[in-house]
Write a structure and sequence with these properties.
The structure is a homodimer of 345-residue chains. Chain A has 345 residues and is of the alpha+beta class. Among the domains of chain A are: 13-69 and 329-342, Hypothetical Oxidoreductase Yiak, Chain: A, domain 1 (Orthogonal Bundle), CATH 1.10.1530.10; 80-190 and 233-289, Ribosomal Protein S8, Chain: A, domain 1. The first copy, chain A, contains 13 helices and eleven strands. The first copy, chain A, has helices at 17-30, 35-50, 59-69, 98-116, 133-140, 194-203, 223-228, 236-252, 259-266, 284-288, 292-307, 316-328, 334-342; strands at 13-15, 80-85, 88-97, 118-127, 145-149, 170-175, 183-188, 212-213, 230-231, 274-282, 330-332. In chain A, a hairpin with a 7-residue loop joins β6 (170-175) and β7 (183-188). In chain A, α1 (17-30) runs antiparallel to α2. At the A-B interface, β4, β7, α8, α10 and α11 of A face β4, β7, α8, α10 and α11 of B.
């Protein structure tokens, strides 16, 4: 490990990606995780740290340890697969974290997408672990289009409402690009991540009025009042409609909890949300047939028309960070690093 | 026809839904449409008028006549079906309007969704006709979840950009509800419908600055400058990401035109956009299995939590209009009615 520390000012610790993986894996094993879960989660934590999504990097080990302490997560659950239709694979995570369930199901989902053209994978009874972009990127790495979504806890009010019903309900999408990084987005249908409101509350800073409502259902600039009230969706009634769609598709459709139910299930423990997830994979070769290459070229012309006018494709910041991290390693704040090391005690 | 007219002030003409259908069908036949196309389009125009979506009611007959005059639309094209994968049906509209293609493919799509769990229908080489809600509602009427999307013309700039790349790219979704109207939304990924900007321009009224950019790529409140510039997406970079997804899924994936290409194909004729469409159908019975009823109940609890706090479900205004129209008939402005009658000359 090539860390640089002085005695006065805490400088960040520099870790290689292999070191991030090993550290994460060791912490997870130390907290009772099975090897399979520890590997799956450590891989995604390494990806988060690599892409400088700091709340999804090794910081997440602290969240994970708290979730394990809540006693609801099964750290050794073995996912089971069930073929429920030619186009649908159901994975039961048995109240373990979601990532091993995703990894276990992915080869079957990919095979179904190739044979059927379009296929779905439902993941049930999982504790949410990370952003969804690692999953849709893994689908795109197989040459398939990926879509993923899940509910969370009911922090978000519907448009025109005053109380939380929806989760922050992320929607992620990836389009595979020949010989390059995919076109990827992964966004919350809430106006902002809940963590951003928490950060403002900690720092006593005001928030923009379209982020949240106070407990009287009125827009507020007070971050603490927002945490006692409800968040807003992005984009008004359109974002609210999307959030509802995600509750329906990744909750009611797949026989798993809505965000309201997941919140109740948590019972104030503050663990990661327990819910289901819907993943869709589409084979562009089956759709495109002889025109597959032409479709790829058409997509590239679309991307070029966006970037040629100075606009960015989604995820470009992550991809730039990825390049830096693969070359130079990642910088971890000393205090965070120390907190993570304590998890090894 | 129970119209009420005085000689001084033009009162609206009141028509029954049957009268709307017959009038629409006659106009379409008079303009050279085949019976099959005229029936399919007249049905959807009647639905639009019934739900008081005025731009999709009999007003649309004027737009349709203009599109037919452009000479690009084949008013008698017979859609052909091709089974390209167990989960994918491809419908070629052969440069006719989209609705007959949708109607022709729907039974096969529904059968595929029931046998595969999830299935897709691509519609290629069609001229756009209407909103997408009649299509996803038709899917929901079969007890299936429906999703539909299509590009249009490249009027909309990507977030952070200055020039049009995306269409107004609608996304529609319907969830079937036992014994009732479905949960339905259908929204443009642009901040506003293009027609609303045109209306403001005609009336010389300013527009909100988040609707559009002028030709220098700056936000503008001048509706005429907006029409010469580019529209904005709803919801900033998130709406922009969704708009891109629709170009990819309902353009590049399915071997059809992106909005930029559709605009070029139109060549200034001002016809309805020519493009493809992606329709997805999901069978909740296949996903839910023995838990299907529980999933339906879960969805109803979600809807109740929304409406109990005074928020509305999407499409409620349409459904209320539907009730009124089925009971009392529809009111059509006299001038519009006269313009439509002239199409019969």
């Amino acid at each position: 490990m090539s860390s640089t520390v002085t005695n006065d000012a805490p400088e960040p610790v520099v870790l290689t990606l292999d070191e991030v993986f090993t550290l994460s894996r060791n912490v997870l094993l130390r907290h009772g995780m099975s090897e399979a879960h520890a590997d799956a989660i450590a891989r995604v934590i390494t990806q988060g740290q690599r892409d400088e999504c700091h709340s999804h990097g090794i910081y997440r080990l602290l969240v994970c340890a708290r979730s394990l302490k809540s006693g609801k997560v099964d750290a050794r659950a073995e996912p089971t697969l069930r073929d429920i239709a030619p186009g649908v694979l159901a994975v039961d995570a048995h109240y373990g974290f979601s990532l091993l369930a995703f990894e276990t199901g992915l080869p079957v989902l990919a095979q179904k997408a190739r044979s059927q053209g379009v296929a779905a994978m439902t993941i049930n009874h999982c504790f949410h672990f990370s952003a969804l972009w690692p999953e849709v990127e893994a689908i795109a790495a197989q040459g398939l289009v990926g879509i993923a979504m899940n509910p969370s806890h009911s922090w978000v009010a519907p448009a025109g409402g005053t109380r939380g019903v929806f989760g922050t309900n992320p929607l992620a999408f990836a389009w595979p690009r020949e010989g390059g990084l995919p076109f990827v987005f992964d966004f919350a249908t809430s106006a902002i991540a809940r963590g951003d409101i928490e950060l403002h509350a900690r720092e006593g800073k005001p928030i923009p009025p379209h982020w949240a409502l106070n407990s009287d259902g009125q827009p507020t600039t007070d971050a603490r009042a927002a945490l006692d009230g409800a968040m807003q969706t992005f984009g008004g009634h359109k974002g609210s409609a999307l959030a509802a769609m995600i509750e329906l598709l990744a909750g009611a459709l797949i026989g798993d909890l809505t965000s309201m139910e997941s919140q109740a299930f948590d019972g104030g423990a503050g663990a990661s949300p327990c819910h289901g997830e819907l993943v869709i994979a589409i084979d562009p070769r089956r759709f495109g047939g002889d025109g597959y290459e032409a479709g790829q070229a058409r997509a590239e012309r679309l991307f070029a028309a966006i970037t040629a006018q100075g606009a960015r494709l989604p995820s470009q910041r992550r991809f730039e960070a990825r390049g830096r991290s693969e070359r130079d390693g990642v910088k971890v704040p000393r205090a965070l690093y120390d907190d993570v090391l304590k998890l090894l005690d």
